[in-house]
Amino acid sequence: STMMPWVFLHSIKDYYDIPWYAQSFKSVKATYNLVPSLIEQIKSYIKNNANDKLLESLKKDVRSINDEDLSLFEHYLFLSNEKNMIKPLDRYYKLYLKYKSHNTLKDFTHDELLDTQVLFLLSWCGNYLRANNPIVKTLLLKGGVFTHNDKLELIETLIEFLPSILEYYKQLNDEKKITLCTTPYYHPITPLLLDIQSAKEARADVTVPHMKSSFKELGERNTRDAIAYFEENFGKKPTGFWPAEGSVSLQTAELFASNSLGWFCTDEEILFKTINSRDKTNIYKNYTIDTKPNCIDVRFRDHFLSDAIGFEYSQKDPKQSAKEFVSHLTKIYDSCDFNPLVNVILDGENAWEFFPNNGSEFFHELYTLFENTPWIECITMDEISKDKHIQNIKLPYLSSGSWINGNFDIWIGSEEKNKAWELLDLTKQHYDKQKEHLNKEVIELIEKEFMIALGSDWFWWYGDDHFTVQAKEFDDLFRKHLMNIYELMNKDIPVQILTPIVKDKNNTFHKKPNSFITSKVDGKKSDYFEWLDSGEIDITKEFSVMDSTNNIVNKVFYGYDNNSISFLFEGDFSNNEKISILLDNKEIEKLDILYTNSYVEIKVLKDNISEQKIDFKFIVKKENTTIQTFPVYSEFFIDIENLELKKWYV
Questions:
Q1: Which end of the chain offers a freer environment for a tag, N or C, measured as fewer CB atoms within 10 Å?
Q2: Which of 381, 110, 392, 377 has its CA nearest to residue 239?
Q3: How far is CA 631 from CA 47, 81, 264, 291, 617, in A?
Q4: Distance, CA of 282 to CA of 338 (rounded, Å)
Q5: Does a cis peptide bond (omega within 30 degrees of 0) precede residue 631?
Q6: Is the pTM of this model over 0.90?
């Protein structure tokens, strides 16, 4: 069964829309990466065997739901982006405000709960569906007072839409308007499967778990199976790969080349490490690695431009963002004495709900500028090696690492991550001893369980570098796959695998102030009592599925009195970074400010604030380049409360 509904929700919102936006622009081309396990999950909905827990509960009449259904609805029905998905639907926003004030659905009437369910699904419908699907259009126009039949009709039409997504990609690929590529089947960090010591090559002082068994064959199989599944779905073999999380090594390049792939992509940091130079103009070339028996091309993405779309442009006016992007391309063009190849590669689904209108205005502005700028040419990954204007360089070697800091720290090295690897190792040791006694069907089922458990996402959520309220669910699911292996072998499950890896954690990164504070603006916390009752925001635990390991600011403390609001930013400011604060989207006038190496303290006049609930953002810049924003995507509010009343007891 499908425990979390994200594949379905992103299918109806993003997977059709993103290539669809580009198709009205004749000269705009792009490459789209479809992970086999994603295709498999989309097809499970089409075949009606996804058993999606949320969808099955949504199909029930609201008068016959149980407590488990209600708990599921409380978890998911307002997980749409408030600003861009909830607020534009008037009835949905009113229901959201009611939920926020009560923090439960138990006092919703049947009609209110039904409206919430339908509006939740409508909020996740992308622009293609809103423009072309008659049922979606009708229900959006209706706005509320929905019937049970409306809901069932909506779910049915959304399921019926899903086959057209894969058909659309196949059509565009066959017409050579796009290039399609793929990823090793279950999205593993392939270099770690081929050789766990790749982690040490990427960062010498990482703590690698002690492993007795090998996952090399499963790493190789993930690649072979991905190629076969791609061919099964699109009628031809893939020409290239985006390795999961841009994770590469020389062994990985050799594996891809031996499977007749022509190219793969990774991050610029890998090239900097490989050639021992941080001259950024080097990334704007095509590279070939002469592996045996086949050579293979490797392309390095521009990290700044990729992250600008993924993280920064959602917070700005679409026209301004598009102009900024082309302005950066102009600087690259002017700085190179050759025709630069600029690879922009980013997550295809997570950013768009944080853009107004699912990113459509931004893409329209960007693609219009591309078409109207004579020296910009869009090409697909397949076309690069045929373009004689692009410089090609031979690489004798390739460093190992991923798109995050050029290492594998997100997936290995911390206590929880290593524990997960050790449980995999324990299970593999037991399997290797039993394998010769098992039949082919059982071996096939066990190896599938192993490949799923070797996927990258489990390790992403273990440890403290990323935060999710669903950490326990991820942990339970990871260990369930290992339990399944023991059950298939008809063996007792070791107690280590029955024991949760994730320790109980405080599922919040925001502590509100307990009392008024008066800050001295001395840029330090030397007086223990000065910031004792302040609010605290732990940036390292931000709700984000993207990377946040490059933060300058780690924590923000804040507090207020009757005249001013004070902020204390904790981090490393030794490189002269500057902080701007935005309250309700306006950069505010500062009363006082002090920078030190470890703290930035800013006092703000309370006259700048007109509301009791203020939208809080900050931007860290170095030489006018943004290097950190908070929040990365969504909104973050600070309540200005009467803190004296909080101390009253009735």
A1: C
A2: 381
A3: 39, 13, 32, 43, 6
A4: 11
A5: yes
A6: no
The one-letter code for the residue type at 238 is: P
Q: Given the structure tokens 């329209």, which residue do they identify?
A: 364
User: By the 8 A CB rule, do 568 and 557 touch?
Assistant: yes
ω into residue 293 within 30 of 0, thus cis? yes
The CA radius of gyration of the chain, in Å to the nearest whole number, is: 26
DSSP string for residues in 346-396? --SSSSGGGSGGGGHHHHHHHHHHHHH-TT-----HHHHTT-TTS-EEEES
Confidence of residue 7 (pLDDT cuts 50, 70, 90): very high
Percentage with pLDDT > 70 across the chain: 94
DSSP state of 24: T
Question: Which residues, other chains included, contact 445 with Cβ-Cβ below 8 Å and sequence gap of 6+?
Answer: 488
Residue entry with tokens 């001395």: 522
Query: Of 31, 111, 117, nearest to 73 (Cα)?
Result: 117
CA distance 567 to 577: 16
Q: Confidence band (pLDDT; 50, 70, 90) for 357? A: very high
Answer yes or no: are the C-beta atoms of 190 and 398 closer than 8 Å: no
Dump pLDDT digits (tens) for 426-475: 999 999 999 999 999 999 999 999 999 999 999 999 987 777 777 888 99
pLDDT tens column, 160-209? 999 999 999 999 999 999 999 999 999 999 999 999 999 999 999 999 99
Report how far residue 449's alpha carbon sits from residue 164's, in angstroms, rounded to the nearest whole number. Answer: 29
Locate tokens 């306006």: which residue? Answer: 586
Instruction: Kindly provide the residue ranges of all beta strands, DSSP E only, lying in 363-494, ordered along the sequence.
Output: 392-395
For residue 375, the one-letter residue type is W
Taking every pair of Cα atoms in the chain, the longest distance, rounded to a whole number of angstroms, is: 80
Token readout for 80 is 């749409």
Give the C-alpha distances (Å, rounded to integers) separating 51 from 8, 23, 287: 11, 34, 45
Q: Which residues does residue 543 pair with via DSSP β-bridges, in sequence order? A: 467
DSSP single-letter state for residue 188: B
Point out which residues pair with 181 in neighbouring strands: 33
